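Student: I would love a firmer grasp of how sequence relates to backbone shape in proteins. Thank you; the sequence and its tokens follow:
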Amino acid sequence: MLLASESQNSSSKAAQITVAIVFTAYMAVVFGLGLYLFSLLASEMREDIGFGYQMIGLVTASAQVSFLIAAILCSRLVDLFGEGVVIVTAVIFASGLLSAMALAKDVTVMALLITVLGACAAFMVVPTVGVISRIIAFEYRARVNGLLSSGTAYGQLAAGAIAPLLVFEYGWRAVWLSLGLGALILSIFGALALKRLVPDVFTKSHHQKQILKQRYVKITSLFSRTNLTLWALLGASGMACGPWQNYLSTFLSEEFGYSIDIVGGLWSIIGFLGLFSGFVMGSLADRIGIRQALVLSYGLVGLSAFLIVTHDNQTLLYMAAVCFGLAFFAVYGLIPAYISKTVSAKSAIPVFAVANICLGIGTALGNLGAGYSPVLAGSFQQLYFGIMIITCLAAILTLTLPDEHMHSKHDQSDCRVNCD
């Protein structure tokens, strides 16, 4: 996703390593230990406080909407305070929100906290692009961005391992409090490390507006058939993958009677595979093509939904977690990879912007609509049948995309011109 020009002065290796490690940890805080933890503990919180399935969808959808709004406002905050201040403030505030969830007495307060947490996630993620373009050497930026995308998996792995232990002994509130305090300590240490080893993170960039002006393109030129297809695919990905995760714990625990220990194990499998699945699928895409790898990823998501619906033993559930873990992080890496290979540097930023909006809208609509599945159909089984249909259609739509190799030579020369 990075199309910014290469920095004139490369930072030290220590500074680059610090940025990579701290930002990955921050991704784990706002996503893995934050937004996804609500889904993991939804069943326990629902039994204690008492709220309907629709509220789960409403809460997760509101977090997606706040993420989109915050992403739009983020550039203005960065102009006023700088990237480092926005990132660190967002993560520390998010840690406080995690701890505050332990004190929530009703679902309204929970919904408000999770909604604000969604905004914090955007305020943390969006400015990292500018920091990486200034701090990380050009030849290392792709791998650093790949490491950051795995941060969510690290958080999910930790949450899946810690939550069952604390829930059995102390209840779901102890999970939020413990992970929130741990995230706060991690956030503060990360901020101190950045301040000491990478002070440039907190330096305002005075070239952002100039760069954006150089990349300005007419809005009408963005609406090509290929771009519309990519946006539709990201929207479909959000509609399928979002509800798959957010309702898995509730579906398995309340309709099949599985304990949080088993459900937490599934989350740990997904998180563990996410540590390297993006890299593996990306390597495969380099060999067989992005479209083929994307079709395979959608097939794995659909297969995971099928296994969940038809399972008659825990082994099939573990197989479903493996399929989803291999595909989930890959889907959100392969589509941006396709865009970077087929869209000119001048058009890439607005194409990515619209793509993220479509992803957020798709996820929000999917989560919101899925909350009515047990009300309308009496079970969450129909939700996972719907996911199978969506992924099948997405795989077919993927095959209509042009071969990315048709654009490779043009895009490489264009990138060299924009990166000089």
Remarks:
- The CA atoms of residues 327 and 416 lie 31 Å apart.
